[in-house]
Specification:
alpha+beta; five-stranded mixed sheet; Nucleotidyltransferase, domain 5; elongated; 11 helices
């Protein structure tokens, strides 16, 4: 592309942040990717046809990108029928892996003052107790430039000045690439298409998902990879996919402090799928703030739930956790930032506990619907006060 002015060049190739121009990471990497583009042009045969393919692919990629980000953020969206299989696969992957996305960091501009580059991340996410950059790719191939791009974003988050400017109160440790294949027609049996699963490429964790509605069988290929083949009469060497129903654990928690901070206690009620109460706990925890007590109740409840059902069954269980603190529910759900430093250890303890279960979801419940847990808190506080004054 020919540029006629400096302003045009800067607008097309970078961002201005606080009066300083930074080149875009993706533009820098296009220099490295140029040989690949040359090969693509040669394969297509002429520039016009190649440009048409690129534009069409970019349009479909943008549409998949937008819908995927809404799904990751937990938003409601009408999914176009032609990409529904991909988005259904993505939704399943989010549930199975317990992927939590921080909505305030979707499509967020980041930059490095140390190395002078900028870019826009797709999102920050938490997977397996770690927080990292989650980048969505819709191209058919996987290229080394993807690793460099995500590494640059993670590096930017290591700069304290940048993290403070972004309002990022937690450490960004790693990166993942969510690869969603665009639609292609399958005219014959093939075993080379990627399906939902994780594998390692370079130093990134890669999440694969596909949109092939007609594929229903999968084959493990080692290293965490999977491939799938078109339906055909002889599928004996494949393992058919099954939707195994999950066991459900329902937890109600409450925490309270008389004085804020002051003497505090927690209350926990654990019930099964059918509403049968399995266990209840009330416990004084010393001097805490209300928010600390609420978080401590959540931490305590997850540890007790795991002990109650056993580690193996916990891995197959879906937990629905109800708390009457809207702040805590939204922080744990990724909708609010955790700004109190004293709550950081509690937050991380809860998220680290997520790997013990198949899935944990957090919900705000009105106090009148959380009376049993509230009762346990007050009983524990009253008992503690009675003991102190005996």
């Amino acid at each position: 592309m020919r540029y006629t002015t400096r302003e045009q060049f800067e607008k097309e190739n970078g961002y201005e942040i606080d009066g300083v121009w930074f080149p875009r990471v993706t533009r820098i990497l296009e220099i490295k990717a140029k040989p690949g583009l040359d090969r693509f042009l040669r394969e297509v045969g002429d520039y016009t046809s190649a440009e048409t393919i690129k534009v069409k692919s970019a349009q479909e990629g943008s549409r998949i990108h937008e819908v995927a980000e809404r799904i990751l953020a937990g938003g409601e969206i009408d999914v176009p029928e032609e990409i529904r299989p991909a988005m259904d696969s993505l939704s399943s992957l989010v549930r199975e892996r317990g992927i939590i996305v921080f909505p305030e960091f979707i499509e967020r501009r980041v930059w490095s003052e140390r190395h002078r580059y900028a870019g826009t991340i797709d999102s920050l996410a938490m997977i397996g107790g770690k927080i990292g950059v989650l980048d969505i790719k819709t191209s058919h191939g996987f290229y080394p430039e993807f690793n460099l791009q995500t590494a640059a974003y993670v590096s930017a988050f290591q700069e304290i000045v940048v993290r403070k400017a972004l309002g990022c109160s937690f450490s960004v440790e790693t990166r993942w690439i969510l690869k969603i294949n665009q639609h292609v027609e399958c005219m014959a049996v093939t075993n080379g298409v990627r399906w939902s699963g994780m594998s390692t490429s370079g130093s990134s964790r890669i999440i694969f998902t596909a949109i092939f509605a007609r594929f229903s069988a999968q084959k493990y290929c080692g290293n965490g990879r999977m491939s799938i083949g078109c339906e055909n009469p002889d599928m004996s060497k494949y393992a058919l996919m099954k939707d195994t129903p999950s066991k459900k654990i329902i937890i109600y928690t409450d925490g309270g402090s008389r004085g804020n901070p002051g003497p505090a206690a927690i209350g926990v009620v654990i019930v099964d799928t059918f509403g049968n109460r399995k266990k209840e706990y009330g416990k004084a925890i010393g001097v805490r703030t209300n928010n600390e007590a609420e978080y401590e109740a959540v931490c305590f409840s997850l540890a007790k739930a795991k002990a109650l059902v056993g580690g193996k069954e916990a891995k197959e269980s879906v937990v629905e956790l109800y708390v009457d603190s809207e702040l805590v529910a939204r922080q744990l759900g990724g909708r609010y930032k955790v700004e109190e430093e004293r709550l950081f250890p509690y937050f991380m303890k809860v998220w680290n506990a997520r790997i013990d279960f198949k899935l944990i979801s957090f919900h705000h419940v009105p106090r009148e619907k959380n009376r049993e847990a509230d009762r346990l808190v007050n009983e524990a506080l009253d008992q503690e006060a009675h003991t102190l004054f005996q």
